[in-house]
Hints:
Chain A is mainly alpha-helical. Helices cover 76% and strands 0% of the residues of chain A. Chain A has 14 helices and no strands.
Amino acid sequence: MRAKVIRRTQASPAAYVFLIVVLLASAFPLWWSFVIGSKDAAAIVQDPYSFVPGGHFIQNAATVVTTVPFWKALGNSIIVSTTVSLLVVLFSAMAGFAFAKLRFRGRGGLLVFVIATMAVPTQLGIVPLFIVMSKLGWIGSLWAVIVPSAVSAFGVFWMTQYLQEALPDELIEASRVDGASTLRTFWSIALPAVRPGAAMLGLFTFIATWTNFFWPFIILDPGNPTLPVALQQLQAAYFVDYSLVLNGVVLMALPLIVLFVFAGKQLVSGIMQGAVKG
Amino acid sequence: MAPRPAWRRRLTRADEKASPYAYISPFFILFGVVGLFPLLYTAWVSLHKWSLIGGQGAFVGLKNYTDVLGQPYFWNALKNTVSIFLLSSVPQIIIALLIAAALDSNLRGRTFWRMGVLLPYVLAPVAVALIFSDLFGDKFGLVNHLLGLVGIDPIQWHKEVLPSHVAIATMVNFRWIGYNALIFLAAMQAVPRDYYEAALIDGAGRVRTFFSITIPQLRATIIFVIVTSTIGGLQIFDEPRMYDQYGLGGADRQWQTLTLYLYQLGWTQKNFGRAAAVAWMLFLIIVVFAIINFLLTRRIASKGSR
């Protein structure tokens, strides 16, 4: 492995210059929203193109959190994203365990079905989904956001692949010979083995759910939003005053920025191991 | 070890037979209810008069389809969707490949660069749309200011059709380029290094090896990225919805996409029948696009490898 790395072509100065430009472009929009979000409207009119932040961030933030139900939205986003991630990981680990390590009729066909559904744009079923939710009386409820997101064909596929590699068949056999039930085998052998893959899946599901807008926007009430829906409300209230809108953008991006600082390395390796768009 | 009693053996056998189905059932039941059923039922709704408030009405056959297809709005939305999709997917893949090639060289501080290109991914599309809507402001936007410094007249990013598409495509590109670059990087690292050494011995330069070794070797990955970005790109909603505060896709529907149109039919006009018809047609368009993409990319890539 080491030898391979050393033999790779040495990075040219041009590669560094190019990557520095890319990194500046990556970070600039976030910096820009901090700059604008920390000024008052008068300062923006005076010098709209300065890259230096102003001193009004806290004041603007105080206006933002009282204009839209910010704390409610933050709480809802935490509840929804956490619950969805846990459910997706659990259901995917269960199905992945069965597909990877148990023998049953229809296994091959069902697995092909799962893989095929990964490409199906289920978002286009929103009209009937809305009808179903109204029949259940769930319109405006967080359940209406959580339940439809709790399944992921990609998650099942990912866990199946992970378990095929991470868990030797001999371990399953040995556990059977010892008289362990399937549940016991799943709980004390498969689940511990799948932990790193599960963490990765959970991380990507969390981000995808946190940033999801379309369906929550349709189904949730203005008084009970998630963060992206609250951001839309902020825009509706203050479109012309970008100091407040972009202040809200920074506030709402902060939790994922913190997550990125701690888990960015894992995200990079997750994508490189084959995680797919959420 | 004492032989197990008969009931115990039967229990074990029942466990082995039934358990697999129990383990896969949460996924399949839930997927059936919230994924497959709504998608298929969309076709049923689209054949009826159906209102958001009043519910199911009379069976009208294909009337919702002919109504929608008879409106210029549908064709306008289709045109906008395809235009934004092309403006976002083509540059996205080219730039992502270039970044991946740069990341694939022997860099100092690899993790830093890789994390850096991924940063935009953790920003919500809604947030990205708001930031870029400001940057692309018609009057006081930073982009127009910078263009002015090099002597270009201000562009009406929120009024003219093509500039608004460029702005929206820029948001998509911003969020996904780094992500796709990492996918390409992983594929590049799987290319056997001997290929490059052989090319080096033959006197091929960096550019030459990139086109005649790296790209053909990445064929499967490129197809994968194109197909997933087609499925996502043709359903685009968040960015055009947030590009102004009204969310209708511009005063003259300059950037109204099909999903935005679908939303407007269903939830503003409360006409679920027509919304379902648009959803079903968009579904078919996505399938057709995915197949065309797949065939095209396969052909181009296999030509390249010859």
